[in-house]
Structures are given as C-alpha cells and as structure tokens.
Design goal:
This protein is mainly beta. About 5% of the residues lie in helices and about 35% in strands.
C-alpha cells in the first residue's frame, strides 16, 4: 500500500476528516477539521469524497515524502507550497512521484492548511472517524517525524477541476457572521455585540478561539448577577460564543466540549466558524449579528 511519511511536522499536524457526529449524547465531541470548507475543497480537488481524512497543519512547517505516485492538494491558509523545493500551487492538484517531497512554508495569512491525498489518509477509524480529537484524546496521535500514513484506494471519478481560486480578501478587522445565542438576554448591552472589536488571544487552540477587547477595557460583557455560580450545563453547538466568568468570550471550534455551564450569547454561521479557525493570535474581529 502506498504511504506518505512525515519528515517534519511544524508546530502541530494531525489527521482530520469531518469528525464523528452523532455521539454528543454519549459525551463524545464531533472534532474534525477546524476549517471544514478548506478540508472539503482539498478533497474535491483530488477527487475524494468530501469526508476523506486529510492532514491538518498549524502554522506550516509540514514536510512529507511518498513511496508511490499520488495526487495531492493543499488548501487553507495562504502559504507557499514546495514540491521538491520548487514553488507549486495552493488550492491546486499536484502529482507527486515516488520519492518526491512536499513542504509547506509558514503562512503569510491564516493558521491552518489541509493536505488531501487521492484515496484519503487510511489510518484506523475510531467511532467512524479518523480525526484526532485534542480534547477527548480519541483518534490517532498528533503526527511526529517518521509517522507513516497509508493512503487508501482511490474512489470516485477523477477530479473535474484541478484548481480553485484562493481567497485573497483579508480585511484588517474580520467580520464573523453570527446569530444571537440562547443566553443573549444576559448581555449587559446587547446592541453593542456587533460593535466591539476583539483580539484573538495567544491561548487559542482547536477547542476554541479566546478573545480580548481590542481597547484593553474591562467593561463587563454580561449583566451583573448576584448568583455567580454556573448555569445548569447546556449543550454546546459548533461555533457557540460562550462567556465564562473571566469575561473573555470563547468561540468554540472543532474540539469543543459537548456541554457548558456559561452563557452562550451568539452562535457563528458555518462559514464564519471556518474563518475563525484561520485566525492567528493578534487578529482583530467583530461580530456581525444577523
């Protein structure tokens, strides 16, 4: 069986597909690719089913080689893709011959990239998914140097297109579309939800994007409550914006917990969650309330 071997991982590289939905009632997070739009695009470019397993990288640095001929595509953050040291296209299908190397430079914009291989990454599934879940520990371990990833048998037709135009619109302040959440009534000033500017914190990860006020102020986001205890635990949806006692909102991403005890004041649209997953620390955002 053809396989790709990891020569370098960068800060973090994991196997990700579309996750393991349907197990939240058992306490199992969905997990999966943080930027699902980029993951499914990479799979389409190589003719895979959209749910096929890919490699998700964080801040570039990945380097792999293959022991057989494979078709690959890289999507996601704006990064230089190198084929045997020569620049190749982002969001474009690329043939690697046996012994070839593929490398990703640090992104000039964005955080995560997806490397799809025709046939998919064929590691053993857990509860129907090959995704690494950083919160629960389910799925394969994060990739390390020397990890050998088998490639599955190609299924489906040859891809009808070999490239896709990358998104070149990167505003100074990213607008994230959202709907008001079930606890929006606990906002101290609901009308300002779409006005404040927030900065992505350095402690953000695959569980969630943690935010600080851009102006450094400590104006409470929530109404004062005499009862400062947690709410009864409630289900947490993908893209929920929760406000813990610290007052720092958290946008929940792929590895979010299935329940939480703090107010959810907004829920991002699916496209906005993908965009949030690409935000590096220091990025500025505001919420665009529908």
């Amino acid at each position: 069986m053809t396989a790709v071997t990891v020569l370098a991982t960068g800060p973090l590289a994991t196997v990700q597909d579309l996750g393991r939905p349907g197990f939240a009632h058992l306490g199992v997070p969905t997990s999966g690719g943080a930027d699902r739009g980029a993951l499914t695009l990479a799979n389409r470019l190589v003719g895979n089913d959209e749910s096929a397993a890919t490699i998700e990288t964080t801040l570039g640095g990945l380097r792999i080689c293959t022991d057989g001929d494979v078709l690959v595509a890289v999507t996601g953050a704006d990064t230089e893709v190198l084929h045997n040291g020569t620049p190749a296209g982002l969001a474009a299908a690329l043939v690697l011959r046996a012994g070839d190397e593929l490398a990703l430079a640090p992104p000039t914009w964005g955080l995560r990239n997806y490397v799809a291989v025709r046939g998919g990454i064929d590691v053993d599934p857990v509860l129907g998914s090959r995704s690494t879940d950083s919160l629960s520990g389910l799925g394969p371990s994060a990739l390390t140097v020397g990890t050998r990833l088998p490639v599955g048998d190609a299924a489906g037709d040859w891809p009808p297109t070999s490239s896709a135009p990358p998104n070149s619109a990167h505003p100074r302040v990213v607008a994230l579309e959202c709907h008001r959440g079930p606890r929006a009534d606990q906002l101290a000033a609901p009308e300002t939800l779409g006005e404040d500017i927030w900065v992505v914190g350095a402690d953000s990860n695959r569980v969630g994007v943690r935010l600080d006020r851009a102006d450094g102020s400590s104006v409470p986001l929530l109404l004062h409550r005499d009862d400062v205890d947690e709410l009864r635990s409630e289900g947490i949806a993908h893209g929920s914006v929760q406000v813990p006692p610290s007052g720092r909102p958290v946008i929940f991403l792929a590895d979010h917990p299935v329940t939480g005890g703090y107010p959810v004041v907004a829920v991002l649209t699916a496209a906005a969650v993908d965009l949030a997953a690409q935000l590096v620390p220091g990025s500025k955002i505001r919420f665009r309330v529908r």
